[in-house]
Every structure is written in structure tokens, then in C-alpha cells.
Amino acid sequence: MAYDTILVETSGKVGVITLNRPKALNALSSGLIRDLGAALDAFEANPDVRVIVLTGSEKAFAAGADIKEMAGKSYMDAYLEDFITLGWERVTKCRKPVIAAVAGFALGGGCELAMMCDMIIAADNAKFGQPEINLGTMPGAGGTQRLTRFVGKSKAMDMCLTGRMMDADEAWKCGLVSRIVPLDDLRDEVMKIAETIADKSLPIAMMVKEAVNTAYETTLAQGIHYERRVFHATFATDDQKEGMTAFIEKRQPSFTDR
Ligand code: HXC
Predict the structure, then answer these.
(1) Ligand 1: distance of its center to the CA of 105 in Å?
(2) ipTM score of complex
(3) Which among 84, 92, 127, 133 has most CB atoms closer than 10 A?
(4) Residue 25 in contact with ligand 1 by CB distance below 6 A
(5) How far is the CA of 52 from the centre of ligand 1 (A)?
(6) Pocket test for ligand 1, best of 59, 67, 125, 145 (most atoms within 8 A of CB)
(7) CATH superfamily for domain 6-198
(8) CA 215, CA 202: separation in Å to the nearest integer?
(9) Given this model, what pLDDT does residue 84 score?
């Protein structure tokens, strides 16, 4: 299917969504969010796609929600349409692993969108920020909550109150991104990571993802309890038998997603 604001392709077992509004630095218009949701629905339903990569251009992952679209909204517009709730949270509902490959600007809603993914791989030119305060507003797609959980209160306050940007190195040091790679290698490196994950058992990868995400929603004791139960459940799978047998037989496992 063709979209106006994104490009969609599959490469082996990996589905790639590229945000594509270059003239607006991939500002996240309502049309783009709709397209993104439809593309994610399609990849989630496609059994050949095992991992999803979300990326932008070399200059911008996304420079935020579309300010030109948003500027004239009234309070009632925002309230009645529940502005940004519908569609925006779609990426957080994905059951397959989603990797954000971020080059250039990831600002405002762009930073929030990247944080909704399961991990962020940054190019060395990446810049992250929550500059909404400069526009007389504030993060509205989870920035005050997810950034705080990623980097802690002091740095989240610093970012959200000053509106400054942090570079890739700072983002890596504070745990916002898992790896930094040279800009020219971003696509290849992210595809390697995605393919590594795609070669695992998909249901086990989905269980791991759910368990890690549960860490953000529960107390430690509840999270450990949840992890223990899901860990037990892996012993009901063929893939656990295959994985451990392959190790003992000194060969690569051949997972069947069962
Ligand atoms: C609409 C945007 C945009 C945005 C850039 N553009 N960001 N349009 N919404 N968020 C457009 C510019 O208007 C311009 O269009 C073109 O993209 C290129 O941008 P420039 O500013 O000329 O580029 P540059 O000088 O390189 O500066 C890059 C930049 C700057 C530092 C990223 O564009 C910038 O500050 N953008 C806004 C960042 C921001 O405040 N994001 C938060 C948005 S609020 P024209 O037509 O003039 O060429 C938000 C709220 C989230 O995200 C809450 C819920 C989702």
C-alpha cells in the first residue's frame, strides 16, 4: 500500500517504516500518524515481518508534532478530539519488537515517538529534546513521563524546563539510547540488530518485550512475579526445548515459533 507521508518496505524478516515529510523535517501531522498506524497494523498482521524499524531522514527523525496544524487549536478542540491520544499510542501497542533508528532531530513528539519504541539506536548526529516549553506548551505524548523514567528526574526537568537539545553522546550516557553508530552506518547497523532479533523465536521475543515493559508499570515484586510466571511459560514451548537441545548438541537452534 502507498502512503503520503511515510515509506514502507520489508527487508527479509524486518519491516521498515521511514517517516517522509522532508520539507517539514518529518513533523508529525495527523495524516502521518494515521499512515503510521496503518503501516504498523499491516506489519503486525504480516507473519513474515518479525521486527519493525521506525526511522526518518539523515536530518530529522521527526521535529515534533506539526506546529502549523496544531497552532490554531482551541482547548475544546484538543479536549474533544482527545488530541494525540488516538493513533499516537499505536506504536506502544505493537507486540512485535520495534526499534527506533534516529538520525538528526528527535524533538518534542519526535522524541516521544522514539521513546515509545522498544529501543533507540542513534546516529552520531542525533539530537533529542522536549522543546515544547519554547512554544508555550508542554510534552503531551508521554515526554514528561517516559523521559523521566529513562533519564531520571533531574535531567528530565532540565530538558523539559529549558527546552534544550542533548546530543547523541549525552543521550547514550544517560541511558536514553542503547547504542550510537556513525550516521553512514545507521541503517546497516540497525538492520543487523533487527535481523539478530528476527532470528529468535518470535513468541519468546514477544514475552521478553512484555516482561521488560512491565517493569515500567509495576512494583519490583509484582514485576518479578510476572517475569517468573512468563519464564515458567517458556517451558511449555517447543522453542525452549529446541534452544536448549541445540546448545547441548553444539549446533544452532532452529526455532519454529511454537
Ligand atoms: C511543523 C516544522 C516543524 C514542526 C520544522 N518544521 N519543525 N513544521 N512542525 N514541528 C518546518 C519549518 O517550519 C520549515 O518549514 C522546515 O520544517 C525546516 O525547518 P527550519 O526551522 O527552517 O530548519 P532548521 O533551521 O534546520 O531548524 C531545525 C529545527 C527547527 C531546530 C528542528 O525546525 C525547530 O525548532 N523546529 C521545531 C521543533 C519543536 O519545537 N518541536 C516540538 C513541537 S511541539 P518552512 O515551510 O518554513 O520551510 C510537539 C508537541 C508534542 O511536538 C505534544 C504531543 C504530540
Answers:
(1) 9
(2) 0.98
(3) 127
(4) yes
(5) 26
(6) 67
(7) 2-enoyl-CoA Hydratase; Chain A, domain 1 (3.90.226.10)
(8) 20
(9) 87
